[in-house]
Amino acid sequence: MGLEIVGRGLPAGNNIGQRIEHLRKRKQLSKSELARSVDVARQTIIRLESQSTGRVDTLSRVFDVLGVKAKIEPKDKKKRFTENAANTSTSDEWYTPPHVLDVLYSVYSVFDLDPCSPTRDEGKAPVKAKKYFTQKNDGLSLPWCGVVFMNPPYSDVASWTKKAADSVERGDAKTVVGLVPARTDTKWWNNNCAGKADILFLHGRLKFGSQTNSAPFPSALIFWNADLVQIQETQKAIPSFHMPKMAISAE
């Protein structure tokens, strides 16, 4: 029919079943728990995830439980830049600009982990890292470690920035550097970035990958638990405004 299911917060995957499985694991729900919440048999969830088959009303209830607002639209519908920009796990059109990566390499050398890479092949991966998580792994469901760089799917940037903040808070990751839209009016920004990380607001608008036009939004590098010297070295090489992490206390 030439249709596909799209939605904010819906992770990348080869099919809808895999994407639902990723969401369920992120919520730390078993198949049985999801089945009970949706009021269907466990086998229904198994078929949905393994075969991508099921009733539309069941799928709708699954999305409600998993917190995703999804819709059906034509596959050839032109996507807005902001729906896919920098989604390195689904398209090679949104890779981090090379000049940004080059600066980060000069400061961090090779990253320990890229949790949203399009490939685990070191020779083809756009980011230099010792370890890669891909769509198949679902980096939101696995522990992070060492110094991490992420250019997350912007359709679900809230989940990725929360994962970054939580990972350094728990001590799983030493440092996380993220390239994200500078959307200071959003909940994810104020919950996961402001006051929890050092922020470099980048001057101008970035061009992602092979795009001929600049992004329609400003960008920022977010440093969770980073060394101040490393942040300063990055700032010297990239025109930016530094907003340092500040303790927030209730009066």
From TrEMBL:
Keyword set includes Glycoprotein: no
Uppermost EC category: transferase
Key word Acetylation present: no
Keywords: DNA-binding, Methyltransferase, Transferase
Transmembrane segments: none
Domain HTH cro/C1-type intervals: 20-72
GO molecular function terms noted in the UniProt entry: DNA binding; site-specific DNA-methyltransferase (adenine-specific) activity
Pfam family, any one: Dam
E.C. numbers: 2.1.1.72
Biological process according to GO: DNA restriction-modification system; methylation
InterPro entries: Cro/C1-type_HTH, Dam_MeTrfase, Lambda_DNA-bd_dom_sf
The protein's name: DNA-binding helix-turn-helix protein
Organism: Candidatus Terasakiella magnetica
